[in-house]
From TrEMBL:
Segments traversing the membrane: 66-88, 94-122
Protein name from the UniProt record: DUF423 domain-containing protein
GO CC terms of this entry: plasma membrane
Transmembrane helix among keywords: yes
Membrane protein topology class: Multi-pass membrane protein
Keywords: Membrane, Plasmid, Transmembrane, Transmembrane helix
Family: Belongs to the UPF0382 family.
InterPro entries documented for this protein: DUF423
UniProt lineage: Bacteria, Pseudomonadati, Spirochaetota, Spirochaetia, Leptospirales
């Protein structure tokens, strides 16, 4: 249930940041940094939906890989999207340098989702 609640909060924040970026920050960021902000927001939205989907599957199919996927998506939201938001606003390279850690976390989330799906939904092998 906590992952569903977190996905709800994350979805709210994704809409808030998207609107704030488009209506308040766009003029002050410049084209390059507004593009970075939009990338952060796009990944924020997509991975919030991924978090929600895995959290919902996890209710009926508890599986350690699904739990790991949820945690990885959360890490990606903070490390990738969060750092790109900060980079766009504060324009400090350290934030851009930390973003790849979040990208790796997003990839791990997708890998864990795949492993969980294989474990839960793959047909059981028949003995010879």
């Amino acid at each position: 249930m906590r992952f569903i609640l977190t996905a709800g909060i994350s979805g709210f924040l994704a809409v808030f940041f998207g609107a704030f970026g488009s209506h308040v920050l766009k003029a002050s960021l410049g084209e390059k940094f507004f593009s970075v902000f939009q990338t952060a927001n796009q990944y924020h939205f997509w991975h919030t939906l991924a978090l929600l989907a895995v959290a919902l599957v996890r209710i009926d199919r508890p599986q350690k890989f699904f739990t790991a996927a949820c945690w990885a998506y959360l890490a990606g939201l903070l490390l990738f999207s969060g750092n790109l938001y900060l980079y766009a606003v504060y324009q400090q390279r350290i934030f851009a340098m930390l973003a790849p850690l979040g990208g790796a976390a997003y990839m791990l989330g997708w890998l864990f989702l795949t492993l969980g799906a294989v474990r839960v939904f793959a047909p059981a092998s028949k003995p010879d």
